[in-house]
């Protein structure tokens, strides 16, 4: 529980995770066959990637305030985590503990450097989904659909937002931003 102390965003995330863990404990459908280890590993890797992104953006928000594109993408990363966690519940798999570490450069880079890191991170993220995660879960349409949405969010929303930030020389975006999708949910 000590890990939940400190940053306000981290405390809220921990409280939500604890609530999901309690609610989701032991509710696997008896008709759902166990997942192969390769699928669980892919889910774990996707969850770790989303958690790492959220933790990174939270450090940036603590440093610079609620600046775009980081504030919008941080919200989206939380939504992505919230999309993955029910899959664990559905298949009776315990999500791994959140032991996310944030790269040291996040504490020292300026906004332009952070946006450049964001561009590369989103390119790497799309490659991760295309080359490893989506092929690993292809036999599971529900898991595949969630992962495809996460991959598409990186390609279609997050990458262009970071590219715009780089094009602005690292100056934060202005206005409310475009973080909401057609259904009113963060992408």
Coarse shape: elongated
Named CATH topology? Ferritin
Question: What's the main sheet like?
Answer: none
CATH architecture: Up-down Bundle
Uncertain residue ranges: 1-5, 14-28, 178-187
Overall helicity: 55-70%
CATH superfamily: Ferritin, core subunit, four-helix bundle
End-to-end separation in angstroms reads 30 Å
User: How many strand segments?
Assistant: 0
**Class computed from helices, strands and strand pairing:** mainly alpha
The percent range for strand residues is: under 5%
Question: How would you characterize the overall build of this protein?
Answer:
The longest helix has 28 residues, at 37-64. Helix 3 packs antiparallel against helix 5 and helix 4 (111-136) runs antiparallel to helix 5. The protein has a single domain, classed as Ferritin. Residues 1-5, 14-28 and 178-187 have low confidence and may be disordered. The protein contains five helices and no strands. The protein has 187 residues and is mostly helical. It has helices at residues 8-24, 37-64, 70-90, 111-136, 141-167.
Write the layout of secondary structure elements.
Elements: H1 8-24, H2 37-64, H3 70-90, H4 111-136, H5 141-167
Briefly say what this structure is.
The protein has 187 residues and is mostly helical. The chain has one domain (2-167): Ferritin, core subunit, four-helix bundle (Ferritin, Up-down Bundle). It has five helices and no strands.
Features:
5 helices, mainly alpha, Ferritin, elongated, 187 residues
């Amino acid at each position: 529980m000590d890990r939940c102390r400190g940053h306000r965003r981290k405390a809220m995330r921990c409280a939500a995770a604890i609530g999901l863990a309690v609610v989701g404990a032991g509710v696997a459908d008896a008709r759902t066959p166990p997942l192969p280890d390769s699928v669980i590993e892919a889910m774990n890797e996707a969850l770790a990637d989303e958690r790492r992104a959220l933790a990174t953006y939270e450090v940036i928000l603590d440093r610079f305030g609620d600046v775009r594109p980081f504030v919008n993408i941080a919200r989206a990363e939380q939504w992505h985590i919230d999309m993955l966690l029910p899959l664990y519940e559905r298949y009776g798999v315990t999500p791994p503990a959140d032991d996310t570490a944030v790269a040291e450069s996040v504490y020292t880079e300026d906004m332009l450097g952070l946006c450049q890191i964001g561009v590369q991170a989103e390119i790497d993220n799309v490659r991760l989904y295309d080359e490893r995660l989506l092929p690993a879960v292809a036999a599971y349409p529900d898991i595949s659909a969630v992962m495809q949405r996460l991959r598409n969010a990186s390609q279609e929303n997050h990458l262009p937002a970071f590219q715009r930030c780089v094009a602005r020389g690292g100056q934060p975006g202005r206005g409310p931003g475009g973080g909401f999708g057609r259904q009113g949910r963060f992408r």
